[in-house]
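Ticket #236: bound-state structure for uridine-5'-diphosphate.
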Amino acid sequence: MYKRILLKLSGEFLADTNGFGISPEATSELALIIAKARESRSGIEIACVVGAGNLWRGARNGRGMDAATADYMGMIATNMNALALQDALSRAGVDSRVQTAIQMQQVAEPYIRRRAMRHLEKGRVVIFSGGTGNPFFTTDTAATLRALEIGADVVLMAKNKVDGVYDSDPRKNPEAKKFDSLSHTEVVEKRLEVMDMTAITLCMEKKLPIVVFDMYQSGNLEKLFAGERVGTLIQS
Ligand code: UDP
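RESOLUTION: The complex was predicted; output attached.
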């Protein structure tokens, strides 16, 4: 059973039905799922990394711009999602702290590894924002990096209505085959879309397990917290 988990939430979890912006309703729904699962397993330590694809993606939205500037804008955008999630979590009765890799001292703590671990030990959810703090990376890499730093047992890659890793896109190909388990090497060799290459190779190198699962399938997070197999498990 996992003791400390890192939950990667892409920006789309906070978006409206078109996949854009921040929807308070969607954010509340997300927070309630986290709150309910947390309640189900005493002592579970939850850290989250939030993305910003609902607001800004450097490479996609910043075409024609200086690439590093566009990426910094993406990192700043993750802070808006983190604050929205924190707000929704507190309305769901969950105490949390936002720690950002891009300093913003009026609204969030700076990322301090030991302090983050202390919050987790005290039962607070820690939301890591600002990505890695560096352009040319993604929040998948930030999730892997933070998971390794805080000694998380696993990276839980939350998906929206996709219940694991398939050999092709199940939304386009009804014949797509789901994998129950995979090795990191297989993910890299088959170029399966789990996370970007930088992130998956870091997981492979450090033997960090990953679970890809459907966040919105009721009870999935509880099952994972209870040590049950859900989605696709990737390990060495
Ligand atoms: N970003 C970055 N460095 C990081 C993490 C994120 O430059 O370490 C930028 C990058 O422009 C990225 C954007 O922030 O496109 C939003 O993050 P991401 O695309 O990973 O969000 P998600 O797809 O998870 O919502």
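RESOLUTION NOTES: The pocket of uridine-5'-diphosphate is lined by residues 10-11, 51-53, 57-59, 71, 74-75, 131-132, 134-135, 137-142 (CB under 6 Å).
TICKET STATUS: resolved
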